[in-house]
Amino acid sequence: MSRTTDCLTDADMYLCMLFQTPVEVWFDGELEDSGTLIEAYSDDVIKVGGVYYLRKLCLIKKIT
Fold first, then answer.
1. DSSP string, 28-53
2. Considering the entire predicted model, what is its pTM?
3. Count of C-beta atoms within a 10 Å radius of residue 15
4. Residue 44 and residue 54 in contact, taking contact as beta carbons nearer than 8 Å
5. Would you say which domain of life the source belongs to (predicted)?
């Protein structure tokens, strides 16, 4: 059973921020960061753990 679910929409990102749910950041098929919180996001970028990522180049997974 998977312990993560993909965050694909703005609503998913907002709920992770609202409930301070830790996330994983996957970049090019490799785990880049784990257990950090989403600090901000826009249509183009997401800020996780003080680092900015382009949303179209990374995958955000909510840790459940």
1. TTEEEEEEEPEEEE-SSEEEETTEEE
2. 0.88
3. 14
4. yes
5. Bacteria
